[in-house]
Model the fold of this input.
Amino acid sequence: MKIACIGTGFVGVVTTAVLAKLGHEVVGLDISEDRIESLKNGEVPFFEPGLSELLVQTQSDGNLTFTTDYKQAITDADIVMIMVGTPSASDGQADLKYVMVSAESAAPHLQDGVIVIIKSTVPPGTNQLVRDHISPLTKVSFDIASVPEFLREGTAVEDTLHPDRVLIGSDNPDTIKILTNLHQPLTKNIIVMQAESAQMAKYAANVYLAMRITFANQMADLCEQNGADVEEVLSGIGADSRIGSHYWYPGLGYGGSCFPKDVKEIAAYARSIGESESIFIAVDSLNEARIPRLMKRYQDYVDGFENKKVAVLGLSFKKDTNDTRVSPALKVIPWLIEHGASVTATDPQAINEIKSLLPSEVRYVDDPYTACTGTNIVMLLVEWDEYQKLDLAKIASTMQEPKVFIDTRNQYSPRDVVAAGLLYQGVGR
Done:
């Protein structure tokens, strides 16, 4: 099949490359000429393991091309996938302008019987809005389905090649058959439902995971007051098969491009239909307050950050990506500087991406040992593999008093840190 993919952001680039790997004729479409030229050269505009190699391979095989021309991309396409951003509007609800513009631009070039797939995260009812918007712009028959994405930055290629499930939102038997056949090489776990259900399921998945993080943080706050270790507590409840042991991340709260946006959007959606007392509003509020709350706690522990030298390890919002959207560093580092600290920062991938977003006083270095040399405090913000097996004794030997190790990801045993000659502060322990 010929598949046109509108949008070459994170989801778009990964999806185009994987579909091309399956042998389809895939065209990636974007209005940015610079972005398209980079992709043609196999250059990915973000760090994602294995993606650049896959781009080069599929283009070399002749299955993948990129263009800025809607007519070239859409004409004769059997499937058109819309994978553009849906940022939060001023009222918190999803802004659908990029979805609508993409559909409108594609409409004159649609062939009869084409399936338009909306992979962007959108609220229920969006499919009908798109249908009503473009129907006057084309004379051909078309169908619209929802197939939401569930990619994780850092493992996106693997998540697309081997998804744990695919949701197909459609009530059209022909569309369901075609989309089932399209996705069967990737997984047998294909779940068919109404489009509205698929759209809600995408929000529900992200919001639930954000809620687990928030729950872990709330438990950590209680543990801080009673001598319990939150990691032991979460291990204890995770052994319950009804709960599970995965996705417990006490720390500085959730970040990235999806969780903060999706929680705010579902909270706004709840308010718009009269559900003003929703749990989603509470989750959003607690996450917004998380970093200031912890930083005040750490400030009290080190007797103030004034004239202290702090090494910050990790600038992306999570490991294995250079994405700095809603990264903890964007709040932590300005807070430190505002309270009198001098900051040296490092990250394996995200230094260039974050420099323009942080105060000019920040010093950047390439490795954690250089970052820690001469500092009073080390703050581990991101659990990069490089930061999980640090020589703590070596770090301690290069630091100045009070020699504090603040482990916001609970990656180290407090006992091991203390044995290395450092004072330890984690989260909920």
Remarks:
- Residues 195-226 form the longest helix (32 residues).
- The domain at 291-425 is CATH 3.40.50.720 (Rossmann fold).
